[in-house]
Structure formats: C-alpha cells, structure tokens
Write a structure and sequence with these properties.
Belongs to the ABC-2 integral membrane protein family. It is found in: Cell inner membrane; Membrane. Keywords: Cell membrane, Membrane, Transmembrane, Transmembrane helix, Transport. This is Transport permease protein. By secondary structure, this protein is mainly alpha-helical. The chain has one domain. Helices cover 65% and strands 4% of the residues. Helix 2 packs antiparallel against helix 3, helix 2 crosses helix 5 and helix 6 runs parallel beside helix 10. The longest helix is centred in the middle third of the chain and has 32 residues. 36% of the residues are buried.
C-alpha cells in the first residue's frame, strides 16, 4: 500500500519551491524566469568596465598620454617660430599664449576619439567583443563606461600638455573664466568620445577608423581656429568655420583662458556652451540607438 503523506499541522511553514536549500537551510530565492536580477544601474559592472578601459590606456601611457604632450609642444614651437616673430599679438596677447589653449583642447579631443574608437573595433577584429556584450550591462552603461574612460584620458592629456606648455617661454595659462575651461574641455572630449564610439560601431577594420581620423577629425581640428581667428578669413570661409563644432570647443576653451574669443561676447559664448550640450545629447542618443540595434556588433 502506498505511503500516505500526512498534511503538515496548521501554522507550520511549507518549504517554498523557489528557495535553494542546502542541508535544510534556505540560501536564497530564484528570480522568475525572464525577470532581470539586477535592476536599476549595474554600478559594479559599470565601474569594472570603466576601470578596464582606463587601465588599458595606462598600460601604454608613454604612447597614450606622454607622446601627445611632446607632439603638441612641437606644434607650439613650430608655429610660434613661424608666425610669432616680431612680437606678434592676437586678441591682445602674444602668439604663443593665444595658440596654447587651442592646442590643449585639440590634443584632448583627438585622444578622446582615439581611445573610444579603439574599444569596440579591437573587439570585433580580435573576436573578443563578446567580453563586452555578454556581461549584464545595458547599452547605456556600456556607452557610459567607454565614453567615461575616453574623457578621463582626454583630461590626463590636457593636464600633461598644459604642464609642458607652461614651461615654454612666453606662454601664460592664467585662467580668466575657469568655468569655460572646464565646460568646453569636457564637452569637446565627450563629443569626440561619442563620435569615436559611433565610428568603432561602423568600422570593420582599422583602415576604416584611420579614414575617419584622417579625413574627418584631423581636418575639422586643424580648421577650427586653433592657429588663427576667423575674422581674418573671407566671409564664405567664416561661415564654414562657424558650422564646425570644433571651432566652438576651441574658441570657448580659449575664452576661459584669455577672457575673449572670436565667438563673440559672453552671451555668444554661453549660447555656444548650450549648443555643444545639445549636440552631445543628440550624438549620445544616436550612439545608444546603434548599440541597442546591435548594428555591425551582434551580427
């Protein structure tokens, strides 16, 4: 005769099927199938990704941080000798002091792009992109981690380049508006970091990434008013310069040091600051949608 199971006395707790038991002691509860275990922001995963990206460029800091300082200092020396002879002044200061802030901002932007454009692209080429896609990170967290590390590299490069230029004779880096230095420096670094992320999503090999750098980033940086003020250009070229977002980053960053720029007065600088924020918001939305779709990443 089959054994009969006697019901448990009233008031006695029945073991929950969702508990994991080990030696009679409940250890935890399973989440329902399809229900995410991590809710909100995965802070541990986001921080881990950020640290991984920062350590990646710090391992080769001679190439990623110190080399840009030497290259930018050479730009300063060459253009100061070529264009700064005879005590030439621009915006009321000597030429080395005028050109130094633009070179700092340009170095920050270029290195921010280089850092973020390498992350996904190297994973796609080496077949290790699964290491970024498999962890429990949302598309927004993945983007924030990569962009945040790129901005960190840009800040490090900015400090090193500024320290090198401060030693150059005739250069003054006294700040008239520190808020503008911080804001336009961060906005420029974030803009190029997001553009680098978008480029790495699109690119399938390093040649594609190099093409974006050589035919888009470098020309926009060189034609952004780093070495001149646009008032001396023909009206048509002035219009082209004002359509270049790099121009507002360079001029706004310079405004923070000199207290004046070719953007215009303080009101125009403020509008440029909000304009860069709006542009970065749009670029971040585009990058997020591309990551969400998995275009050229999950296929």
């Amino acid at each position: 005769m089959a054994d009969q199971v006697n019901p448990a006395p009233a008031g006695t707790e029945q073991p929950d099927a969702n508990f994991v038991e080990d030696g009679g002691a409940a250890k935890g509860r399973f989440a329902e199938r399809g229900k995410p275990v991590i809710t909100g922001i995965n802070r541990v995963g986001l921080w881990s990704l950020y640290i991984k990206e920062v350590r990646r460029f710090l391992k080769v800091q001679t190439q990623t941080i110190w080399a840009p300082a030497i290259t930018t200092l050479l730009f300063l020396v060459i253009f100061s000798v070529a264009l700064g002879r005879g005590g030439r002044e621009v915006l009321g200061v000597n030429f080395p002091t005028f050109v130094a802030p633009g070179l700092i901002a340009m170095a920050m932007m270029q290195n921010s792009f280089a850092n973020s454009s390498f992350s996904l692209l190297s994973g796609k080429i080496q077949g290790t992109i699964i290491d970024l896609l498999m962890p429990p990170l949302s598309e927004g967290e993945l983007m924030i981690g990569i962009v945040g590390a790129a901005v960190t590299r840009a800040i490090a490069v900015g400090f090193v380049v500024a320290a090198a230029m401060a030693l150059y004779p005739g250069v003054s880096l006294a700040m008239a508006h520190p808020w503008a230095v911080v804001w336009f420096g961060l906005m420029g670094a974030a803009m190029l970091a997001i553009l680098g992320l978008i480029a790495s999503i699109w690119a399938e090999k390093f040649d594609h990434n190099a093409a974006v750098t050589n035919f888009v980033i470098t020309p926009l940086a060189m034609l952004s008013g780093t070495f001149y003020i646009i008032d001396r250009l023909a009206p048509a070229f002035q219009a082209v310069s004002r359509a270049n977002p790099f121009f507002y980053v360079i001029s706004g960053f310079r405004y923070g040091f000199l207290g004046q720029s070719d953007i215009g007065d303080a009101a125009h600088v403020a509008w440029a600051a909000f304009g860069l924020l709006a542009l970065n918001t749009v670029l971040a939305f585009v990058a997020y949608k591309l990551l969400k779709s998995g275009w050229k990443i999950k296929s």
